Amino acid sequence: MLEITKESIEKAIEKARITKPKVKVIQFRLYNVTNKTTGANYEVTFTKIAGRKFADCTCPATKVCYHIGASIGAHIVLAEQMSRQTV
Ligand SMILES: [Zn+2]
Predict the structure, then answer these.
(1) Which of 58, 44, 59 is nearest to 4 (CA)?
(2) Side-chain-facing half-sphere of 49: CA atoms under 13 Å
(3) Looking at the chain, which terminus has fewer C-beta neighbours within 10 angstroms, N or C?
(4) How much is the pTM?
(5) How far is the CA of 81 from the centre of ligand 1 (A)?
């Protein structure tokens, strides 16, 4: 599990902006990311533990990768919608 910090996610988002992978929402906290050039396909999951954010990706990267950077945008939008619904 990789912890999402401001520094690690900023780098990942920057990389995602260049790579522009395709993000598909499977369900809340679970996203499918496809590299349009290579066709490589990975699953990203987000977890929140004691106020800290973590993510997992099925790719071989050992740090916050651009798949996580690409899907966090969709995740934030969904998380906001979910929190509004429960109020
Ligand atoms: Zn990845």
Answers:
(1) 44
(2) 8
(3) C
(4) 0.92
(5) 25
